[in-house]
Design a protein that fits this description.
By secondary structure, this protein is mainly alpha-helical. The chain contains six helices and three strands; from the N terminus they run H-H-H-H-H-E-E-E-H. A three-stranded antiparallel sheet has the order 2-1-3. Strand 1 (88-92) and strand 2 (95-99) form a beta hairpin. Helix 3 (43-57) runs antiparallel to helix 4. The relative contact order is 0.17.
Length: 142
């Protein structure tokens, strides 16, 4: 999805989105190459932006977590949704960890714990087959 559609989905202002891309909190699926080539965003970006907005609402400086967000993007783009969609995310500035009710967190110091099912629900994502990784690019038809 392109910039305008992405902004509409996350209900965020453009300057905040550009800042998050510049600081590595969001990593577009396809980088914009100039004025005529716009960046493209995917579901991994949508999930990360939702987490970043929650953190902003809690008055947490999101830029300090850019290393953790890089790891989140990689995981959302490569791992099955079965791994993370129903668990809890423990987030620290440099690391991430996931847990379900029966699996303990790894040692993450200064962690913020978020429910992934709440984040998925908030972003209106649905998984026909949760074993399939999220699509990289979403084409708008119409």
């Amino acid at each position: 999805m392109y910039y305008a559609e992405f902004l509409e989905k996350i209900e965020c202002n453009g300057s905040k989105l550009k800042d998050w891309v510049r600081t590595g909190v969001l990593i577009p699926a396809k980088s914009g190459g100039g004025p005529r080539t716009k960046a493209e965003f995917d579901y991994a970006n949508l999930l990360c932006a939702s987490i970043a907005l929650d953190m902003t609402d809690m008055h947490i400086t999101v830029k300090g977590y850019s290393e953790a967000f890089k790891k989140l993007h990689t995981m959302f783009r490569t791992e099955s949704a079965l791994v993370w969609a129903e668990g809890y995310l423990a987030l620290a500035p440099m690391e991430i960890s996931f847990a379900s009710d029966n699996k303990p967190y790894s040692k993450v110091s200064h962690k913020l714990i978020l429910s992934m099912s709440e984040i998925v629900e908030k972003t209106n994502l649905t998984f026909d087959n949760p074993q399939i990784p999220l699509p990289f690019k979403i084409a708008v038809q119409g």
